[in-house]
Specification:
Helix content: under 10%
Distance between the termini: 40 Å
Number of strands: 11
Oligomer: single chain
Number of helices: 0
Strand content: over 45%
């Protein structure tokens, strides 16, 4: 049984930083795709970032590009999301996702991912 477990959420002031972690268990995703979505209250689920399968390079939503950094440790089956210069609009529940055989055009589509974590709350407030 595959499980994704997020950690690292919390309360931070605008302009601050947080680092989220997601550990996958039950199978390896070293050749698959792991990434992040988020959902704020009253808003639709939003793609945040992942890695392109064809070249392994990070791939981000425009809203977080230049502020958020995706990294991964395949040996630990773990991905990280370093979030810098956080804004109040970044407040959301952040969910880790994982899947296999995703092509670049499907990376922003939540339905393309087979596995979802429970999520971790990130609150940006002064």
């Amino acid at each position: 049984q595959v499980q994704l477990e997020e950690s690292g959420g919390g309360l931070v002031q605008p302009g601050g930083s947080l680092k989220l972690s997601c550990v996958a268990s039950g199978r390896s995703f070293s050749s698959g795709t792991m990434g992040w979505f988020r959902q704020a209250p009253g808003k639709e689920r939003e793609f945040v970032g992942t890695f392109r399968r064809r070249d392994g390079r990070p791939y981000y939503a425009d809203s977080v590009k230049g502020r958020f950094i995706n990294t991964r440790d395949n040996a630990k089956n773990t991905v990280y999301l370093q979030m810098n210069d956080l804004k109040t609009e970044d407040t959301a529940v952040y969910c880790c996702v994982a899947g296999t055989n995703l092509i670049t055009s499907s990376l922003r589509n939540g339905a393309a991912y087979n596995y979802w974590g429970q999520g971790t709350q990130v609150t940006v407030s002064s």
